[in-house]
Amino acid sequence: MNKGLLFGIALLGATHCIFAQEQLGIRLDHYNGINAALLNPAGHAATPFSWDVNLLEGAFFVSNNYTYTTPMKLSDWLKDPDQLDIAFGPDITPEKPLPPGARKVDFYTPDRSLYAKAQVSVMGPSFYVRLAQNHTIGLLTRFRVAGNADDVDPNLAYYPYFNRNFFQDFRVSKFNAGAMAWSEIGLNYAYRLPVSNGSLSIGFTAKYLQGYEAAYFNNKTDFQLSKLPGDTLSGGPIHFEFGYTNSNFTGDEYALKRNGSGLGFDLGVMYVSGEEDGNFTWRWGVALLDVGRVNFTANARQHVAQTDAVSIVGADAFEPFNRRDEFEEAIIQVFSEKVLQDSNASLQSNEFAMRLPTAISLQAERALLPNVYLGAALIQGLPTRNAAVQRGSLLAITPRYSHRWFGASLPVSLYQWQRLRLGLALRLGFITIGSEHLGSLFTRSEFYGSDFYFAIKVNPFKIGEREAQLSRRKAAPRRRGGGGSNVKCYEF
Predict the structure, then answer these.
(1) Which residue, 7, 72, 343, 346, is most buried by CB atoms nearer than 10 A?
(2) What one-character-per-residue DSSP string does 37-88 give?
(3) Residue 479 above 80 pLDDT?
């Protein structure tokens, strides 16, 4: 197989499958201030600082269960592609083994739905300041690129598909895919309410969104498909809905252009018990993240293809094209002509809306020893059949050590309920680096994705006045009053 095509398939498994997962090494550390607001907008309310500034945070994450490259690790992808000897897995046989030093691109045969997800996230200058003792306001800036393909029928996996006989019907179930590039400016407010033996914080982030590029494809009904000779498919009835921005279909270079805008919000609650000197006994949180959408009203197209009968489409009907501005004429209009008998029938609108990757986030953490904690986090993306980028699911157990000037965490996470991963995050002063997929960085094995993140920030060298007050309270003897409330002795 052509080496360029092989490299493209490998990249499909490594990069095209577009949230580091959730950057738990940053989000759960109570010394990381405003950055915690991305997992729970109330998450920073109990931090020991009167102010905190994020200078730069970056993260990327990729994962899929369709294809992989082996033996491979992340640093190998940073090399010149021409230096990589890549072989096509289906061509490898006992008589024709993998050449020494070569990498193999091969495909999984899963017994569950296929998925592909990825994220690139850059958090720019962001901050919070504490007003009085219990009010916190902050500003967040962030650029994001995210994408997904979810619930893809396993009948479309490489080996089940290509090993299937001609004229044999098979099911294609509902699925959705989406990708979007957008930026956010968020205004955060959190209120901390002192309660018995702790505090209850409520946080809200209102976000103004600017959309640059987007595309989506939704198969809205199950249908039967069969392969015919001559690279031809027969299937139906179908109900496809898809849309895209075309601002980069012309010109010699890709460039981000503002094609839409919208609003979004995050809402969260955090309960902390046993707060003393910036530490705590228990911490519980729940949040609703990324509610909102971007309305693309410029350079946008929305199409619908719905039939009541079986359609037959062959690859020879599509004209080859060499320029991006030929895509719509060579692909979209030809498809509409073959399926709907009119090259313009599928076009429904010159605008569409993309929903944000909405999710529910749950967090719990217990202090085991001074500065030693055991935490758990569940992030569950909320599915939708509308145009959207969808968040993956993540369950993580995170033991960590957290000191003012040093921190370390070792998250063990289960991604999409099928990928168990070991991570590591280290914080030294104002700098944090980490990964939730450590093996992909240092071990050559089946490379199906990777994960890395970092953050650079500044905050006060000394713990803030609020913690000084808590420290003084700790020094004062306390009695247990009725109902378990803490009653302080007189202070002189």
Answers:
(1) 72
(2) GGT-TTTTTTSS-SEEEEEEEEEEEEEESSEEEEEE-HHHHTS-GGG--EEE
(3) no
At 206 the pLDDT is: 99
CB 204 within 8 A of CB 267: yes
**What's the whole-model pTM score?**
0.87
CB-CB contact of 120 with 142 (8 Å): no
Q: How far apart are CA 337 and CA 349, in angstroms?
A: 18
φ and ψ at 161, to 5 degrees? -75, -50
pLDDT at 470: 42
What single-letter DSSP state applies at residue 157? S
Max Cα–Cα distance, the chain, nearest Å:
93
Sign of CA dihedral 231, 214, 77, 250: positive
SS3 141: strand
Q: Could you identify the residue written with the tokens 């009835």?
A: 237
- Level-2 CATH architecture, domain 3-488: Beta Barrel (2.40)
Identify the burial level of 188 via C-beta atoms within 10 angstroms of its C-beta, where 0-12 means exposed, 13-18 middle and 19 or more buried. Answer: buried
DSSP string, 470-489: HHHHHHS-EEE-GGG-EEEP
Q: Where are the domains of the chain?
A: 3-488
Cβ-based burial of 322 (10 A; exposed 0-12, middle 13-18, buried ≥19)? exposed
Dump pLDDT digits (tens) for 246-305.
998 877 778 889 999 999 999 999 999 987 666 789 999 999 999 999 999 999 999 999
Q: Which of 9-23, 75-89, 409-423 has the highest mean pLDDT?
A: 409-423
Distance CA 108, CA 66 (A): 5
Cβ partners under 8 Å of residue 141, min gap 6:
123, 124, 125, 126, 183, 184, 185, 186
d(Cα 226, Cα 170) in Å, to the nearest integer?
6
**Per-residue buried b or exposed e for 95-119, using 16+ beta carbons within 10 Å of the residue's own CB:** eeebeeeebbbbbbeeeebbbbbbb
